Amino acid sequence: VFRHADLEITDHGSDWLFTVCAIMGASTVAFMGMAFSKRQTDRLFHYITAAITCTACIAYFAMGSNLGQVPIQAEFVRPNSSQVFAAGTREIFYVRYIDWVVTTPLLLLDLMLTAGMPTSTILATIFADEVMVVTGLVGALTQTTYKWGFWTFGVAAFFFVVYEILIDGRRHANALGGAPKKAYNLGGVWLIGIWFLYPIAWGLCEGGNVIHPDSEAIFYGILDVLAKPGFGFLLLFLHRNIDVADLGL
Ligand code: RET
Prior knowledge:
The protein is about 70% helix and about 5% strand. It has helices spanning about 10-35, 45-65, 95-115, 120-140, 145-175, 180-195, 195-205, 215-240, and strands at about 70-75, 75, 85, 90. The strands form two sheets. A two-stranded antiparallel ribbon has the order 1-4. It binds retinal (RET). Retinal binds near residues 103, 107 and 154.
């Protein structure tokens, strides 16, 4: 049986999610087209970036179809009433986290490989990133206020990622100089600027149940378009004069 949440996306939410699905699909085709205009040995960043939007395209296909979600008990305030109903359920799109566990390490790889960071540092940063996503998932599925405990672990892990990207990575990129330095610094600021909004979106949606799932779809949707195709086009544009061999790859 298909269990419906009391609070779930409407047709508007679904149409928007399919729109983002199409943007992700079109970006994947564009990134692969750009890859094939390069020599086979020069396609690393194109393949990583195309894998990111390909994964999101499928996740958004699921969400537009109202799949990859599960009803979770949540308190919410009904419109035109200040009364809080504890009985309601909200649909939680766990498929987002399956997407993120694949794509956020790839986004970090795009940047950290640009800066020529050491493998040990890259692995440690990806570990923290995975802690962030998995605690976010467990917190989203938790029905009690313990969910905020998981969110706190996630934010702590996120701060480590922020430190690695803004401080450590910048040092490595500046040592390389030239086009990699420029690509890393612009891409890094873009990435961190957008990533900071995700824990806020989580607090308003999965965490606090403050905004409607349709608004959640718009909030996360805009963030995902900026964080995946937006970041991807920026990074590949800034990579146009970088030889991957110069990055030791
Ligand atoms: C969660 C909740 C736990 C605390 C933090 C979070 C951050 C999530 C981020 C997600 C980024 C996703 C991207 C997707 C691609 O489009 C898991 C919401 C800090 C930063 C970039």
